Write the structure tokens for this entry.
Amino acid sequence: MTTRTFHRPLLAVALCGAMTVALPSLTASAGSSRTADERVDGSSGIGDPYWPLDGNGGIDVASYTISNRYALATKRLSGRTSVRLTATDDLTSFSLDFLLRVSKVTVDGASATFDRTDGGHELRIAPAEPLAAGTEHTVVVRYADHPAKYSYAGERNWLASKREVVTMNEPHMAPWWFPSNDHPLDKAIVDVRIQVPNGREVISNGKLVGRKVRKASTTWHWRADEPMVPYLAFFAAGDFTIARGRHQGLPWLVAVSQRLSKGDQRASMRLMKKTPAIVAGLEKDLGDYPFSVVGGITTGLNPGFALENQTRPTYPAVGGSYTSLVVHELAHQWFGDDIAVQGWRDIWLNEGFATFMEWRWTETHRGRSAARILRSYYDNVPSTSDFWRVTVADPGATKVFDGAIYGRGAMTLQALRNRVGDATFWKIVRTWIREQRGGNGSTEEFEELAGRVTGQDLGSFFTAWLRTPSKPAMTADNGLS
């Protein structure tokens, strides 16, 4: 998913532990018909224990049509979002995750009452008529506010100057700029229109559909072809240099902020233009790239991390040679974007795979083998290090982006490769991608698949690597002999 730090030193890795969480199904119960007394208020969360208010019960979103205006000088955002959703229960009310001040809400064209609950993170909506399970509805929310005023879960995620803005963060970003069902379990199509002063550019996910130029402003229209998790939707506005092309049939578009120095602009554009070739290299191991377009953007702001926004990752200025960072974020297009986590405790499936693909890139480009990198970690991190004290399969909300999730996640995969052999390992990876494509994946599902493909009992292996907060023993069973 996201690379939280650019220099991941050997000792800055950690392990995440996996546990099963029963998250509610987003499938409507066919034929449900409750009396007025039996109708419910959709829950304020989807059921993830790490962030109980993330997502919402009783709804399944199909699409977001976002039409926003952003004033760079005042950092004020205003607009409307149309949310097309299906009720998955008989509802008297439901919630969307949103932080900004709302002026009006309609459901199917009729005014709905609304209020704030749970510290302002939940926009509770009561339609004029109850919603029946299995029925589709269009919810329109109008709003205007200054996103930088707001925080949630200890995060203040609005990243902006008076010349540039970029909406990039994880695990939360959407509630600062559009109302959403903000959890990886509910992917949806995202269509984005952003109006900015003339002369400014807007970059977002997917394809540039068009621009509408008025006397003083321009509206940029972007649309992604494939559903995405809400935090992966983004826009950046400011002064950008844009380059585009086609590589082996895949359209690409990259952008670099003109707020950077001339030298940084040149170096960043060199790095961004590596994107299509890196995708082609990853496809040799992972199969076809999962989306219809690809790209990247380098911001002139200082986020302190890069993020795998779907189809177009965002990066800080790191120079022209930091290929491994681009490999990491593009590997996330398979692991984290196309296959999202079932719950946030499964984060190692994103970060471990993306980090492992960095190691794989190194070994296929005249560097150390992934097996040697694994041994270097193992041999140089003492058993007393905090690196080994994280439970990779269930790290807890405060540890989801601990360095160990990246490092120990990648170690787990290379150790599995050592244990089962190269050909079988890549069969596991390709099967995982094929079976989970477009959906969500959990640690338990990956373990089951690995056992099924190999015909081996890998329980003790995964227990040692993913569920034990201590250094695995140097044994063949653990892929370390």
